[in-house]
Design goal:
Layout: E1 13-16, H1 26-29, H2 38-42, E2 47-50, H3 57-66, H4 94-104, E3 110-114, H5 117-129, E4 134-137, H6 143-154, E5 160-164
Parallel strand pairs: 1-2, 3-5, 4-5
Amino acid sequence: RNLLHDENVTVSCITVDEAHCISEWGHDFRPDYLELSSLKDEFPKAAFLALTATATKTVQADIIKQLRLEMPAVMVSSFNRENIFLEVQKKTNGYHQVKEFLEAHENESGIIYCFSRKQVDVLTDKLLDDGYNALNYHAGLDEKQRTSHQRLFIQDKAQIMVATVAFGM
C-alpha cells in the first residue's frame, strides 16, 4: 500500500486475479482478499478488473458486491481449454487408480485435487511412502510453506502437487 500511495505513482487500474477468492471459501484461503474493497475508497478514480477462471453466477455476483463494482461489464468465456484434458472415471479403488495413472504418466508433472485438507495430507503421505516426489498444498499450511511448495512445483523440483479444490496457484 505504501507503494500505491507514493506521490510518484498514479494508480489508474487495480486488477484482482483469482477474484473468486473474495467469495465463499476463498477468503479462508487468502484472507487479504477481504480487504481489497477498501482500495475502492483509496483510489476512487481507478478502474477495477476482477479476473477468475472459476466463478459461478453466484460467485460473480459476490465478487461484484464485495468489490462494490458499479454496472460492471461481465465477460465470460468457455472453461474448455485445449491444453487441459478432463476425464471422469468411476472410483473403484482410489489409491490404486491414482498409482495406475501416475505410472501411465511417468516423468510428467501434475496436480491431484482432493476435497479436504485431510485427504490431501493422507494422499501426499502415501505417495511419498511409495517413492513419489509429491507435495501438499492447502489453506491449512502456513503461507511460507505454501509459497515454498508452489515454488518447488513451478521449478520442477516436485513432480506431483496434491491440493484441495481451493488450490489457487
